[in-house]
Amino acid sequence: MPGAMILGMTSPKLAIQTEHGRMYSRKVGAEATVPSITTIIGMDHTDLTGWAGYMAAKALSEDSRLPQSLEQGSMMRSLVRQAASAAADYRDAAAARGDRVHFYAENYALAQLGQTHVLDEAKHALESHGELGYAQHFESWWRDYRVEPIQAEVTVWNQSVGYAGTIDLLAKIGGRTCIIDYKTKTADREGIVKRPDDKVIMQLAAACKAEEQVVDAESGDWKPWTYGNDVMLLAVALGSTGSRTFMAPPAAMPDYWSKFYALRRSWESTRSIAQARSTLAEITPPPQA
């Protein structure tokens, strides 16, 4: 089934979900030893309590059973419980949609490269969810920017700092080598695709600072990463109504890299504390003289 295929394909072969977030191994079946770029960036928490509260209130106000539940306490409690999960449901649906769009984009690039692909299955998955607009605008973006793909889904590694990640697309645009990250976004009230979060600059900076890229995930064969200099770092916002392309400003890269490095140290400390189960130790009063 296309859905099952997508679930397997959107998770990089060397990525493993652990209690400390997504981590990477050097070859298939080996122990995961470094965190993913997105796991590290996730240490920079964003307060979403206001948004979650709004989503819960919105879900409750739009529920057609609300008038009837005003006279039935048990039904009202049931509606409140369902509304409380509205933010998580929205997040999970957005993540699944992002997986489908990324899978389509990956296979479109593979087809352009003349490599093995399952583009028809990827397109069918989007169509079955009413999401063909994402595919159409992605293809328009590809044509408009005259993308010349080099490699899709490139897993990279930095041993010095200790992290790994997977780049959506490595390509040439306008004669420049580009590291490209796709972000699926909704549209505003005017139908304009929303901007990606600026945290993507950190993600692109970390990808640029890689030291190796995988050659064969099964055997654990790697080679030096040669795309760390003179590259454009692009974030492409893909929506059902259009697309927008943003470039990470070169002048901002040192600061974003410094923040990423600090978050990597924070991740390590957090994991060490969790593993040591370090907690407050209760003590008793000193003995009487």
UniProtKB/TrEMBL annotation:
Every PD-(D/E)XK endonuclease-like domain range: 73-210
Source organism superkingdom: Bacteria
Classification via InterPro entries: PDDEXK-like_dom_sf, PDDEXK_AddAB-type
GO biological process, one term: DNA repair
Keywords, alphabetical: ATP-binding, DNA damage, DNA repair, Helicase, Hydrolase, Nucleotide-binding
One GO MF term attached to the UniProt entry: helicase activity
UniProt name for this protein: PD-(D/E)XK endonuclease-like domain-containing protein
Organism the protein comes from: Glutamicibacter uratoxydans
